[in-house]
UniProtKB/TrEMBL annotation:
<dbReference type="Pfam" id="PF08238">
    <property type="entry name" value="Sel1"/>
</dbReference>
<protein>
    <submittedName>
        <fullName>Uncharacterized protein</fullName>
    </submittedName>
</protein>
<comment type="similarity">
    <text>Belongs to the sel-1 family.</text>
</comment>
<dbReference type="InterPro" id="IPR050767">
    <property type="entry name" value="Sel1_AlgK"/>
</dbReference>
<dbReference type="InterPro" id="IPR006597">
    <property type="entry name" value="Sel1-like"/>
</dbReference>
<dbReference type="InterPro" id="IPR011990">
    <property type="entry name" value="TPR-like_helical_dom_sf"/>
</dbReference>
Length: 399
């Protein structure tokens, strides 16, 4: 009563006082609740050791909540030595009593091969038990398993079913996932409007993936009126959370002056953040900025560095740009062999400029054709990666 302020003024200290009296007499619920108070530092100084002490007493009496809580302490090395095996032991005991949180946790242990051999089938079994009790996290997890065909036959329809159940309970991961399904017409009729609806719900809860996706929808005018300003707003929210896709996208918006005043410096700032996280498009564009001295001091060497990093990830624009740097001895010694190597890689991915360059080299040899020279002079300025504004299905995972 004191903990929740029911009929009395809310007081964690008074709650602890009465839980302690009851727990000392062996009441299992009071022991678990007292453990929670120590766990969270409510009404008492936070203490993992005291939390474990009271969870253990309650768990030994068969309290399923305490058993699950004790499993969490073992899994996370709080107040006890870390042990996945002990965590599994307590999750299993609690799950067998029907505790939904323990069923979810046990499913996750099988999913991630922690304390037990990896088993998609066992993971699905326990996710389903928790999901059928209405646990939103388990419903989302079960949706992921159907989405990916792990432990069950792949089924977009079943994935949508479980994503929807979790999404309607407010689970942001599931809301984003359901948005993706509507975006791509998987398991449901394609609908930009429904995609936007669910992206927005997740985005407003702070989900970075959904914020980026919602930005893309505004960028393209899909399901909403086109708005560069709204696109920038949502890209920024995701970018500030560290989402590399959004950082690249925000860089593009500053680069082009879309929805924000044009700023090479801001473009470079966001390209760099994304590039340092491994985004190949941002790496290529950062190289371009160095090649031309846009927002940074001009440096062919830095341009080559970033073109190479991007090119080695398979970015066709960067492969073309790196080929041109070798072709024109910019930041690297001139090398026809290296130029051809990188032109070929880009050409094989369908890059028209690289195909043209490679064709002219094979037809005319090096530097002998005026048309070739003029065209290559134009190309030597480099090419930027564009933001891929088509939302592709993301690899939705449960962690």
């Amino acid at each position: 009563m004191y903990e929740n302020g029911q009929g009395v003024p809310q007081s964690d200290e008074e709650a602890v006082k009465w839980y302690t009296k009851s727990a000392a007499q062996g009441n299992a619920d009071a022991q678990n609740n007292l453990g929670l108070m120590y766990d969270n530092g409510q009404g008492v100084p936070q203490s993992d050791e005291e939390a474990v002490k009271w969870y253990t007493k309650s768990a030994a009496q068969g309290n399923a909540d305490a058993q699950n809580n004790l499993g969490l302490m073992c899994e996370n090395a709080r107040g006890v030595p870390q042990s996945d095996e002990e965590a599994v032991k307590w999750y299993r005991i609690s799950a067998a009593q029907g505790n939904a949180k323990a069923q979810l946790n046990l499913g996750m242990m099988y999913d991630n091969a922690r304390g037990v051999p990896q088993s998609d089938e066992e993971a699905v079994k326990w996710y389903r038990k928790a999901a059928e009790q209405g646990d939103a996290n388990a419903q989302f997890a079960l949706g992921v398993m159907y989405d990916n065909g792990q432990g069950v036959p792949q089924s977009d329809e079943e994935a949508v079913k479980w994503y929807r159940k979790a999404a309607e309970q407010g689970d942001a991961n599931a809301q984003f996932a359901l948005g993706v399904m509507y975006d791509n017409g998987q398991g449901v009729p394609q609908s930009d409007e429904e995609a936007v609806k669910w992206y927005r719900k997740a985005a407003e809860q702070g989900d970075a993936n959904a914020q980026f996706a919602l930005g893309v929808m505004y960028d393209n005018g899909q399901g909403v009126p086109q708005s560069d300003e709204e696109a920038v707003k949502w890209y920024r929210k995701a970018a500030e959370q560290g989402d590399a896709n959004a950082q690249f996208a925000l860089g593009v918006m500053y680069d082009n002056g879309q929805g924000v005043p044009q700023s090479d410096e801001e473009a470079v700032k966001w390209y760099r953040k994304a590039a340092e996280q491994g985004d190949a498009g941002a790496q290529n564009n950062l190289g371009f900025m160095y090649q031309h001295g846009n927002g940074v001091p001009q440096s062919d060497e830095e341009a080559v560095k970033w073109y190479r990093i991007s090119a080695e990830q398979g970015n066709a624009k960067a492969q073309l740009n790196l080929g041109m740097m070798y072709d024109n001895a910019r930041g690297v010694p001139q090398s026809d062999e290296e130029a051809v190597k990188w032109y070929r890689k880009a050409a094989e991915q369908g890059d028209a400029n690289a195909q043209f360059a490679l064709g002219m080299i094979y037809e005319h040899g090096r530097g002998m054709d005026e048309v070739f020279l003029n065209q290559m002079k134009k190309l030597s300025n480099g090419t930027k990666s564009r933001l891929n504004k088509g939302m592709q299905r993301r690899n939705i995972t449960w962690e």
